[in-house]
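Quick note —
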Amino acid sequence: MPKPLKTLTRFGYRLATLLMAACVLSGAVLLASPASAAGVLDVTCTPPSSATSTYSPPLTNTPQPSSSTVSFQFGPCVSLSQPALTSGTYTRTNPARPRSCLDLLSSSSGTFTITWNTGQTSTLSVNVTTTIAGAALVVTQTGTVTSGLFTGDTVVITQTGPADDVLLCTAGLGTVSSIYGLVTLEITSV
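Predicted structure written out below.
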């Protein structure tokens, strides 16, 4: 009886050694592949990073002149290539123009500049899509850094917040005076 157990133990040991060697080799292949070297995360910012948009007067489901202020607070942020970078901000006030809460659900594009705590800036050109997932309003901005720190990198900003006011407004049952959401930002080298 001890002989089969000895054979099984020898077989198990050889199998474990073979599997370990396969893992090491596959890891080496993955590290050497161009696909894994294609995108290095240059900076990431996580909640409590946030964004707030305010509207004056509040939006209704009928277009009316309304001004808006958009403010992003990024931080904490981590960057291996720029270790002193820990936060950033962006604020813009838009003049009054005809708008409604239905506009919040449409796609758009834009350019804006983040000012980092280091004094450096990154200008982003992004496409914006907005979806409602359950009770959450999800705003996704994707694009590139067109100038400043991280020029040429890709950017993804995801803002997630409650959709209650937007849903009520689009149904004609309320207004939207502000939108708040938690934000993640990733800037990745190409």
